[in-house]
């Protein structure tokens, strides 16, 4: 083989060897680089995916909390309006109570004054009644001797008039009636008359018109004698 042929063969072999070496090295390097980039990309994707998921959860929680806060705010607003209405109602009722207390206080003062006046009037009335009872007793002392009559004070402010010697056949037989003065209208009240007198009401009316107790007693004695005589 000539030198030229050997050189050409060597060039060809070198070219083939270089081509094969460059080709093999480039593919391996590229695959390694691509593999590393792919791993890094997957790691970043996983990392960012987790971060994104966390952000989404945070956003969802914020949205839920916002809804809850809005609902709570609405409930508090409604409750506040209700409490405000109740407060206004209580203020009105308190004003009514204050007015009522003032009215009651005035009525109590008026009632106390009325009670005081009534107590004073009762004292005066009691004094007058005592005086009238004394006058009646004084008159009774006069009537007793002339009319065969006795007078007795009894419970309830009443005075009992007792007549005897009305019946000759039975001089110990007695007749009686009770009388008192009304505190309201200062009129005589006659009750428990024994024996009964038919025109007692007319006699009592005349007594209250004339205020002449002596004439009334004389008339009652006369009526008793008539009733005993008619038996």
TrEMBL record:
<keyword id="KW-0498">Mitosis</keyword>
<comment type="similarity">
    <text>Belongs to the SPC25 family.</text>
</comment>
<keyword id="KW-0995">Kinetochore</keyword>
<keyword id="KW-0137">Centromere</keyword>
<feature type="domain" description="Chromosome segregation protein Spc25 C-terminal">
    <location>
        <begin position="156"/>
        <end position="225"/>
    </location>
</feature>
<dbReference type="GO" id="GO:0005634">
    <property type="term" value="C:nucleus"/>
</dbReference>
<comment type="subunit">
    <text>Component of the NDC80 complex, which is composed of ndc80, cdca1, spbc24 and spbc25. The NDC80 complex interacts with mis12 and zwint.</text>
</comment>
<keyword id="KW-0539">Nucleus</keyword>
<dbReference type="GO" id="GO:0007059">
    <property type="term" value="P:chromosome segregation"/>
</dbReference>
<dbReference type="GO" id="GO:0051301">
    <property type="term" value="P:cell division"/>
</dbReference>
<comment type="function">
    <text>Acts as a component of the essential kinetochore-associated NDC80 complex, which is required for chromosome segregation and spindle checkpoint activity.</text>
</comment>
<keyword id="KW-0132">Cell division</keyword>
<dbReference type="Pfam" id="PF08234">
    <property type="entry name" value="Spindle_Spc25"/>
</dbReference>
<dbReference type="InterPro" id="IPR045143">
    <property type="entry name" value="Spc25"/>
</dbReference>
<dbReference type="GO" id="GO:0031262">
    <property type="term" value="C:Ndc80 complex"/>
</dbReference>
<dbReference type="InterPro" id="IPR013255">
    <property type="entry name" value="Spc25_C"/>
</dbReference>
<keyword id="KW-0175">Coiled coil</keyword>
<keyword id="KW-0158">Chromosome</keyword>
<keyword id="KW-0131">Cell cycle</keyword>
<protein>
    <recommendedName>
        <fullName>Kinetochore protein SPC25</fullName>
    </recommendedName>
</protein>
<feature type="coiled-coil region">
    <location>
        <begin position="45"/>
        <end position="100"/>
    </location>
</feature>
């Amino acid at each position: 083989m000539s030198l030229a042929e050997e050189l050409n063969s060597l060039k060809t072999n070198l070219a083939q060897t270089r081509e094969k070496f460059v080709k093999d090295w480039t593919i391996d390097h590229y695959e390694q680089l691509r593999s590393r980039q792919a791993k890094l990309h997957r790691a970043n994707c996983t990392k960012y995916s987790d971060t994104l998921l966390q952000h989404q959860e945070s956003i969802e929680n914020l949205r839920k909390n916002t809804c809850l806060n809005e609902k709570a705010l609405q409930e508090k607003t409604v409750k506040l309006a209700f409490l405000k209405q109740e407060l206004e109602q209580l203020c009105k009722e308190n004003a009514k109570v204050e007015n009522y207390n003032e009215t009651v206080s005035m009525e109590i003062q008026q009632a106390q004054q009325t009670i005081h006046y009534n107590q004073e009037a009762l004292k005066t009335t009691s004094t007058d009644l005592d005086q009238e009872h004394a006058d009646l007793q004084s008159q009774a002392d006069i009537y007793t001797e002339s009319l065969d009559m006795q007078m007795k004070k009894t419970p309830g402010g009443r005075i009992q008039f007792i007549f005897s010697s009305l019946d000759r056949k039975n001089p110990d037989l007695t007749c009686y009636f009770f009388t008192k003065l009304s505190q309201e209208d200062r009129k005589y009240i006659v009750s428990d008359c024994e024996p009964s007198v038919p025109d007692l009401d007319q006699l009592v009316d005349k007594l209250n018109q004339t205020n002449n107790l002596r004439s009334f007693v004389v008339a009652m004695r006369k009526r008793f004698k008539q009733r005993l005589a008619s038996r």
